[in-house]
Amino acid sequence: MNLRFECQPGCTVCCDQSGYVYLSEDDLKRAAKFIGMTPADFEKKYVYRTRRQLRLRKPRDKQCPFLLENGCSIHPAKPTQCRTFPFWPELVENPHAWKIASRFCPGIGKGPLIQIGTAMEIAQEQRRAYPEMYKEL
Questions:
Q1: Cα atoms in the Cβ-side hemisphere of radius 13 Å centred on 4
Q2: Overall pTM > 0.85
Q3: What 8-state DSSP symbol labels residue 49?
Q4: Is the pLDDT of residue 52 over 90?
């Protein structure tokens, strides 16, 4: 499988896809620190917590509270899920899923060839950050 990817300048298409932005505890702390809040205050304002996972609360009119017209307002501290896209396990381990993602992501298929080992390492980072999402059945 040839994996090429390079974020395209100004693109936020991945941020506008239907779904949720999940957080690890480290993601929560990093984002809170970046915007100058305590983790508890950040969680109270921006996070929905269940027994198994954390996710950002969705505003009514967009997918993420930190997505602005000109991009991600917490880009240097963005969650693992955002930082590792498109190298998620479900995409790099499934050529058909990678091809489907390329339909909305203009960066897939562009840029340098990504070694499969590198892509799998990034996918493992996703698995470590969100173990509940990737439990073996």
A1: 9
A2: yes
A3: E
A4: no
